[in-house]
Amino acid sequence: MNRYLTTVLTLAVMTLAAGRSLASETPSKFNFGTIPFGKPIEEVLGTVEGASVSEDDHADFSDVGAYEGVTSRHFPDGIYTTGGIGCDKRLNSNVVKKYDVCYSGWDNIASISLYFCRRYNTDDPYTLFMVEKTLKELDGPFRSSFKSLAKTITGQMNVDPDTRETSYQTFQMLALGTSPDPAIYGVWRSEGQKVILLVRPGYIPETTDPPTILYISVSGCRTYLAACKDYDDSKQQEQEGKAGKAGGDF
Asked: Is 18 strand, coil or helix?
């Protein structure tokens, strides 16, 4: 075999091996301790190649917002509604970009949402400040599911949670007059991060609806809330300016 043909075959084998290596890698699951908080969009999305990724222009946060008391305690002044009281909840899409990630090869994860923010009216890069992980539906009562998941999280973070009983009610449930579902959530705090586990019963008896885990960068959340304040202040000044001009025609 001549040297040229040997080189070609060697390169072909190396290319095939590299392809197999890439194919064997699964998109990041964003497990605790591996989340690239503070990194820009392009870098973070590069870790989920092979998965289905879609941008949510509205930065919907309705599922988390349906848990009574969660958003008011942990995202004060950072939650917006599509209408009046009780309507679907969103983050501020003027300072947030949200990407939903799905991958059929994940065994226990249904989807992951990535939240990036930047200060309002700046050219700063959007950086990752929160990850929302939705697990698949679990068998068994929701309290038992919460206990098992909480035990795992506590073991990983080595800190006990602040656990609260609450209720879950979406805008659709409210509109239809459906009573809230019982629910439970836990909050773990460690080294500049906050983890929130949200669990409620499934529609089928003795099952647990897909649990949600929020991974939040404390400093990133502060940046988000500051960006919301900048946005709200700007809009208020704009409205006052319009009102002042209208008053000039008195």
From this structure: helix
